[in-house]
Protein: Endoplasmic oxidoreductin-1
Organism: Basidiobolus ranarum
Amino acid sequence: MGEAKNLDNTSGSSKKVLLVKYFIPALLVLWCARIWHFYSNPFSLLFSNSTVGVSEIQTDPNYCNPIGLIGDSPCEFETINVVNQDISSELHRLVQTPFFRYYKLNLHKQCPFWPNNYLCNREDCSVEVMDEAEVPEELKKKLGAIDFSPAGLGLQPFKKCEFTEKDFCVLEDESSQDGVYVNLIRNPERFTGYTGAPAHKIWQAIYEENCFAPIRLISDGNDHISPMTNALVDSTKEEDETCLEKRVFYRLMSGLHASISVHICDEYFNQTTGQWGSNFECFHERVGKHADRIENIYFNYAILLRALNKMSIYLQRYDFCSGNPGEDASIKEILNRILKLSKSSPPTFDEKALFSDSASMILKEEFKDHFRNVTRIMDCVGCEKCRLWGKIQTTGLGTALKVLFSYDDYKFGARGNPNILQRSEIVALINTFNRFAESISSIQRFRKMYFEKKDEIYHL
């Protein structure tokens, strides 16, 4: 009996040894592998081809569907969605017209902030230049130029001729002979392969122009810089301590960045298949899972819509002389429909809430200086096509700010100066508004994809 008992004890001890030595470590390895698989592919559980039915897969019902008021705006997200359903198609038609699709710029301006700028040599980075003979003579006379001629190196004071006190962006000599004509329809904003350290450096420099605000920045690895509200800083406390003007600047930059990311992911080049198409993984990582980035896209849209409303009479009276009376009439018809739709929405932004006292006038000048620098940083982008659209959209936003903060309403009335804005500013504003309208539409498509193809999403 005693011997048998000792045998049993020996057997039990051996089992414990085997359990500790082999079985538990094996379980730990399997558990760690599962955790690593989930973190390396966060939708692996959500979209895995398991025995769980599609209806049983857990999804976020509010994915890419923000509700309530847009931050720092009296407008609701749903209002923007409703307006954009009708206005986006009209904007698409408008930017197809010669007046809004032809642009002139110098593609070879030297970066004013750092030497040895990286240049993207990929075919998708290059811009297709027009033959000057394709441009109608009447339109050629009006066609504004963005002159990228070198203005020296380093962060130095702007030359007086580069902008007026009313401008939020740098608009150089429109009579420059160094520019080339570009058809924007033939050079769409989409994936070019320009990414990594060069792109990160550009966005880092842009966000650092917000240095007059106490917002610390981090990168998420996708060339998108974010305030550290999700890490070491309480977001509510930080927002309370940051004045409206400073938040608006950051929201504009973040919204522009997020919108560009949406376009890249919506027209993504699959290097394996050689085909263009929507890339859900790209969208989710860069924009979809970041509620603040989506909100800032809507915020930019609200700013642009408000500017369009303020200058509606001015645009209705503007001379869109392109040498073709039929096309000019078509522009007027489309534009009038856009303005009618834009006026049907409730107020989307209250510009009078910013720079409202004498103390904030200094801040207003700082705001202008920083935004002008952002437009100049676009000259450091090593991808021609990215530079083209970056310059257009920063100019478009700068024009919206100029309309909202540099002039009273009556300046854009029936008796206002018809030369307040250059043609290049109007073209940039409308094309920028169209890009944000397409971003809103793309977000809705990606949301639909999230629900309809959740079991296939990683096989797209």
User: Anything to note?
Assistant: The chain has a mean pLDDT of 80. The CA atoms of residues 221 and 362 lie 35 Å apart. The first helix runs from residue 2 to 40.
